[in-house]
Amino acid sequence: MAQLRLALAQVNPTVGDLEGNADLIVEWTRRAAEAGAHLVAFPEMMLTGYPVEDLALRTSFVEASQRTLEQVARRLADAGLGDLPVVTGYLDRRADAPARPGRPAGAPLNALAWLHRGRVAVRSAKHHLPNYGVFDEFRYFVPGDRLPAVRVAGIDVAAVICEDLWQDGGPVSVTRAAGAGLLLVINGSPYERSKDDVRLELAARRAREAGCTLAYVNMVGGQDELVFDGDSMIVGPDGRLLARAPRFTEELLVADLQLPEAGSEPLPREQPVRAADGATITVERTVLSPHPVPPYEAVPPPVAPPMDDLAEVYAALVLGVRDYVRKNGFRSVICGLSGGIDSALVATIAADAIGAENVHVVLLPSRYSSGHSVADAEELVKRQGLQARTVPINPMVEAFERELHPSGLAEENLQARVRAVVWMALSNQHGHLVLTTGNKSELATGYSTLYGDSAGGFGPIKDVTKTMVWALARWRNEQAVAAGQVPPIPQQIIDKPPSAELRPGQLDTDSLPEYHVLDALLDDYVERDMGRDALIAAGHDPALVERVIRLVDRAEYKRRQYPPGPKITGKNFGRDRRLPITNRWREPSAG
Amino acid sequence: MAQLRLALAQVNPTVGDLEGNADLIVEWTRRAAEAGAHLVAFPEMMLTGYPVEDLALRTSFVEASQRTLEQVARRLADAGLGDLPVVTGYLDRRADAPARPGRPAGAPLNALAWLHRGRVAVRSAKHHLPNYGVFDEFRYFVPGDRLPAVRVAGIDVAAVICEDLWQDGGPVSVTRAAGAGLLLVINGSPYERSKDDVRLELAARRAREAGCTLAYVNMVGGQDELVFDGDSMIVGPDGRLLARAPRFTEELLVADLQLPEAGSEPLPREQPVRAADGATITVERTVLSPHPVPPYEAVPPPVAPPMDDLAEVYAALVLGVRDYVRKNGFRSVICGLSGGIDSALVATIAADAIGAENVHVVLLPSRYSSGHSVADAEELVKRQGLQARTVPINPMVEAFERELHPSGLAEENLQARVRAVVWMALSNQHGHLVLTTGNKSELATGYSTLYGDSAGGFGPIKDVTKTMVWALARWRNEQAVAAGQVPPIPQQIIDKPPSAELRPGQLDTDSLPEYHVLDALLDDYVERDMGRDALIAAGHDPALVERVIRLVDRAEYKRRQYPPGPKITGKNFGRDRRLPITNRWREPSAG
């Protein structure tokens, strides 16, 4: 056996910022060198950020990625870091693939490079291209067909990219045949609730299949609707967890590993192997450093404890907001504050993300606002130290009413839209990003006003059901109490029955079932794609099933016009759930 | 040689409306029978409409499609039409495909069926799955691997689906080996400018490759952002055009063909053939009617003349609006009318689509509106007989100003948003669909107000550059003059310099270059994905290139929140151009 100190750089790149991402590689390689690492690995598409979507099809962008990669290799050597092998993801392309219908323009590759002594020593590319959920990689990439097996400190290290771990066959299935002592997997794997359990189980299974230690490095940070949670880890050949990084934060996970030393017999530089998916994968051998490092005293690696469900959701929301604000060049946010639970939670998340001094809230009372709403909102402002302003909307609403005489829904929507005009004007005047406060239960059922409460640039709780909104508010208050602080959200806001306050005495339950009933049904219909009969068989009330299916299907056009927000479930009405707008499909009746 | 009267049913299905689409199959099969046809073909995914997107992943929907297909076969027989073979597209699934990561849930198939004598005689599925532009078929389908060769009236007829014609290899490449006398291609091929020329060339090439006559049937109608233009056609084995249907309208294209009679030697029922793309395609032979029909007098088939460029664009826009209104259950539309060219063209398109009596326009003059704007708008209303109403916006704008004191861009946007609140209130009160009037040049550069002029349910000219807006307006007026009618758009509206009229004396050219310069640059940057250096090398002004790239990239977040509109170019900022919102990529400088 040979020793290896491995560093996994769980960092936060930004899509399109090649220079900034290159700086991150140099900076974190320096940290790895200072920690005495013998090998350092960065996430999938580290150099470009991920996902790049249509940028992959732009020649100038692909060439910039290729050029920047070479520069990074030289910069590392110039900085005295050239002897430390670096594995990183980047965007490349196949030079030998002619244009043809159905092949992405320029034949881009989701690629992996080994940087060593000032040059790019080895290149390979992702074999399995995910094209489901938030992934569209058949649009953007052509598949790779090589497995690099690179000798570092006398150990043969194989390296693959993300989906190659998830699907059967491909390069992972030939890792054992390649005789690798370590399988390195670089990832851009977005957060989903409880995905950490699935990942650990998968890594353990693949380690056993490959018969070697498996190291998994994932990026961290927000990108549009996606949040990457990190969760980098190392498992032994028996599937046992050896090391794990904390989630939702940048981290250098350093671990001392005992790995099988490579044999001394010469092996072919290239060796085609039939993979389990029918493809032929060529094992490509390279030697960077043939001999084991001198024995040294190993330090036990850190194993971050798992997070509980609410803690991880809350952390995803905070990171999603912080990175959307920061990466898009904003410094402050604004949102309406009604005195209800949704806007209270959004303001609290925003304050945790960017500081209360950068969170602007507008109280917009109307003739239907209750006294307690204003008082509760003011109490929340006081507890958190938010930047608050009150703009009563009656004068504007009345100016419209004198001309248009709206009634019913038109009158309710008018108030919501006047509020949006106010916060958009303040946003335009002062440069704040507008946060919308709608939750997933409302969004799913269309219980919101287009260009009213749904107007804004980012929706922090867009993918959070109402039931979970309450749970998160309670959880956040409990955390404060446990830390000896004042709970940020007044209990009154959590306890009162939800109301849009767009007409006298209005309650959400006038229009919608109780949220615990609704949310369970939405989960089965939206997340699980269950049909009408299956929903009823699962125990949901038949009349409610009919009604909610109708509401959800009708609200599709509204959701198309909603702003993005951090994704935390399997389907968040973004690209991962794309139903036609014009759509006459109705679930068939049981009879 | 044997005779065959072939009917291609170029019809307009609706996504999700299985019953309605089934009715269309029965009705148009009846028409084909009345026309004496021996075989009738319907478009791709006829039974479900196309594209169904995530509905393909819903078990209840797939099962409904399978069930409805069987019912249609029985209904045709019950109606005395069972002896006329019917080829149609529908949604099926592979029963033998276990769930695995990366495979669409339920293994759906974009399928093709032959209906005959009350039953489904033959089933096959699309082999090449397009996953570029507006297509996402790797998300939704698993590939088929069979080529049906079905003997009808003594002729062996092979049948494939859409993309199988566009890509090399697959079932089309084994058609010659299968000895087919006719290759039938059923399509859901959306309109793009000048695509008719490409299609004819492609059909001619594939006919020569297959060595037989090729019949191409396409759907017609609007579906969300897509417009299907029909353009069904038949070409001979030498690639010569034999018949062609008019576009943008439902049509039964009937043609008498002379086709090679199948040999009498027995052939294997199933025959695997290695296709040019490396796949194995199984030719599956079925006999529906072994003997040629008795000789009859053939009628020369119709060949619709090609449409000129502006005529086809205008027809696509009218059909897109009409079907979006109709298929979504609206009866009327509303839009703002400023006196400018964009809203004038949108109102004219809408009047042509659904009748002037169903087109409601609101004149919303502000303190900055010029006298001629109001007069021009009123003249347009009078010429076309639109339903008009005037709502001066000063009182509402002033109510906001008293509270918020906006300046600069905030003040300009306020006016645009107050207008949107007015038309949304009228829409909510009266049930009109709101049409937005923004054009592609504005949309690309972000020259519009979020939740202001961009607010609405459908954007008829969303994919039309300003240069083409003028060209279409002139073309529409010329058509009227040629027909002895009053031109619908006052010349004054076409001639005056464009202005948003949001501040005194404002002109578009204050903020943007001349539109003919801008539009040429947008075409190269957006449609062709050209990088900065390539744009400058193509002759665009370097300073303008820098500026427009910055404008277009910055406006990405706005376009994400734009409503859909009919697609007429390669990329219309819908799903076919999906750039990240958070995106720091900037084209590198020349130095």
UniProtKB/TrEMBL annotation, chains A, B:
Catalysis: reaction(s): deamido-NAD(+) + L-glutamine + ATP + H2O = L-glutamate + AMP + diphosphate + NAD(+) + H(+)
GTP-binding keyword on record: no
Residues that, per the record, bind ATP: G336, L337, S338, G339, G340, I341, D342, S343, T437
Active site (catalytic residues): E44 (proton acceptor), E44 (proton acceptor), K126 (for glutaminase activity), C162 (nucleophile)
One GO MF term: nitrilase activity
Family of this protein: Belongs to the NAD synthetase family.
Gene Ontology biological process terms from the UniProt entry: NAD+ biosynthetic process
CN hydrolase domain: residues covered: 4-259
Function: Catalyzes the ATP-dependent amidation of deamido-NAD to form NAD. Uses L-glutamine as a nitrogen source.
Pathway(s) of this molecule: Cofactor biosynthesis; NAD(+) biosynthesis; NAD(+) from deamido-NAD(+) (L-Gln route): step 1/1
Keywords of the record: ATP-binding, Ligase, NAD, Nucleotide-binding
EC number: 6.3.5.1
SUPFAM superfamilies, sorted: Adenine nucleotide alpha hydrolases-like, Carbon-nitrogen hydrolase
Alphabetized CDD domains for the sequence: GAT_Gln-NAD-synth (cd07570), NAD_synthase (cd00553)
PANTHER family, per the entry: GLUTAMINE-DEPENDENT NAD(+) SYNTHETASE (PTHR23090:SF9), NH 3 /GLUTAMINE-DEPENDENT NAD + SYNTHETASE (PTHR23090)
A Gene Ontology cellular-component term: cytoplasm
Encoding gene per record: nadE
Binding site for deamido-NAD(+): N413, E442, K558
InterPro entries found in the cross-reference section: C-N_Hydrolase (IPR003010), C-N_Hydrolase_sf (IPR036526), Gln-dep_NAD_synthase (IPR014445), NAD/GMP_synthase (IPR022310), NAD_synthase (IPR003694), Nitrilase/CN_hydratase_CS (IPR000132), Rossmann-like_a/b/a_fold (IPR014729)
UniProt organism field: Thermomonospora curvata (strain ATCC 19995 / DSM 43183 / JCM 3096 / KCTC 9072 / NBRC 15933 / NCIMB 10081 / Henssen B9)
Residues that coordinate or bind L-glutamine: Y132, S189, K195
Protein name, per record: Glutamine-dependent NAD(+) synthetase
